[in-house]
Amino acid sequence: MTSKKQSSFFNACLTCLLLLTSLQIAYTSISSAEDLPVFTLGVIPQFKMHRMHAIWQPVIKNLEKRTGFKIKLIVPNSIPEFEGRLLSGEFDFAYMNPYEVLLANKSAGYLPVAFDKSRKLQGIIVAKKNGDIRDISQLDGKDVAFPSFNALGASLLVRAELKDKHNITVNSRYLRSHDSVYFNVVQGNISAGGGVQKSLANQPSMLQSKLKVIYKTQEVSAHPFAVHPRIKKNISQHFYQALLDMSQTPDGLKKLERIPLSSISPAKLTDYKALSNMQLHRYYSQ
């Protein structure tokens, strides 16, 4: 065999070897990806769907890198749908309001694992900035909008305090999301609306400028991440550690702040027991 033919033969073999190696690497990568455990994360839908995914998908991707397992984000179309699926135990992990964790613990055994201890949840009532409503006393007998029947800060706390503390009866209207409540108040379709500070802060500045806060409820512990009892303890601990590590990097914290979470602390069921004394079941709809 001539030197030229030997060289061509060698190059051909080398090409085949590189091709086989590439295919093996690709196959191994695909197999590894398919072998990763998959866990679901259900999230309470506080905003329109495109905004929810814009907020949560970067968080999910970061958590997947840190945990080594796949996380399937589930954002139901409405808060009642989310609650139904949560209370039936569908989600492996879930991000929910504080009252829901008490209900989910009772119905499906969920336990809180993480929350932002530095934040508190507080309901607010907003009215149109240049409108006639200046004080909650003017809301008696008026139409007031809420994102859902069972939203804790934006609905349960607000309705409970209006009735129990101020003896004010309103005509409640349920509009499926915080965004819809704020929009309809600005449009003058409703006298006032229930919300929370974080959802108001996430509204476009133009819309915020047309609203005023006329009432604030008492504060309660913030939204927790909770885990279903079928998830092994080491997986739950790994999930918590990934959240904590994420919060301690500038890029990770920036992503979490859009939820918003500014710090991560371990959560216990006792962090939410005070809610049991408020008798919110009188205003909650199954």
What would your notes on this structure say?
This is Phosphate ABC transporter. Keywords: Signal. With 286 residues, the protein is an alpha/beta fold. The protein has two domains: 145 residues, Periplasmic binding protein-like II (D-Maltodextrin-Binding Protein, domain 2), CATH 3.40.190; 97 residues, 3-Layer(aba) Sandwich (D-Maltodextrin-Binding Protein, domain 2). The chain has ten helices and eleven strands. It has a six-stranded mixed sheet with strand order 2-1-3-10-4-11, with helices on both faces. Strand 6, helix 5 and strand 7 form a beta-alpha-beta unit. Helix 2 crosses helix 9. The longest helix has 33 residues. The radius of gyration is 25 Å and the shape is globular. The relative contact order is 0.16.
List the topology elements.
Blueprint: H1 3-35, E1 38-43, H2 49-67, E2 70-74, H3 79-87, E3 93-95, H4 98-108, E4 111-115, E5 120-128, E6 143-146, H5 152-164, E7 171-174, H6 178-186, E8 192-196, H7 197-201, H8 205-208, E9 211-221, E10 224-227, H9 233-247, H10 250-256, E11 265-266
Parallel strand pairs: 1-2, 1-3, 6-7, 6-8
Antiparallel strand pairs: 3-10, 4-10, 4-11, 5-8, 5-9
Helix pairs in contact: 2-9
CATH topology-level fold name of the largest domain: D-Maltodextrin-Binding Protein, domain 2
Strand line-up of the largest beta sheet: 2-1-3-10-4-11
- Total strands: 11
> What is the CATH H-level superfamily of the largest domain?
Periplasmic binding protein-like II
Question: What's the N-to-C terminus distance?
Answer: 85 Å
Low-confidence stretches: 25-33
Share of helical residues: 40-55%
Largest sheet, in brief, is: 6 strands, mixed
Mean pLDDT: 89
Judged by helices, strands and strand pairing, the structural class is alpha/beta
CATH top level of the largest domain is Alpha Beta
Strand content: 15-25%
Radius of gyration, taken over Cα atoms and rounded to an integer in Å: 25 Å
CATH architecture identity of the largest domain: 3-Layer(aba) Sandwich
Total domain units: 2
Shape: globular
Number of helical elements: 10
